[in-house]
Amino acid sequence: MTTPDPAPAGRCPVCQARFRGAAECSRCGADLAPLMNLAIDAWRTRKAAQAAIETGDFERALRLAASAQQICATERGRRLQLIAGALATM
User: Fold this and answer.
1) Does the predicted model carry a pTM greater than 0.90?
2) Which of 20, 32, 42, 84 could crosslink 68 through cysteines, CB 3.0-4.6 Å?
3) Largest CA distance in the chain
4) What does the pLDDT look like over 2-54, one tens digit per residue?
5) To which H or E segment does residue 84 belong?
């Protein structure tokens, strides 16, 4: 099993310190748990989109991929959305 993508932009939204995967920013002490939860939700939604592609439900895959990108945009997620979109229009 792969791990979720890191937080958006990989930085603390308060002080811009590099995200280290901890629930608290190592520099300013900001609570990063909500940000981590969003990243995990997006990862799970992307996994569901991948499963929908595997079962041939391309419209659902596209909806899920787009939803994941709205939650937490990543380059990998963008590629998944493009693939799902291409498959949905076939």
Assistant:
1) no
2) 42
3) 49
4) 544 444 457 899 999 998 889 999 999 999 999 889 989 999 999 999 999 99
5) helix 75-88
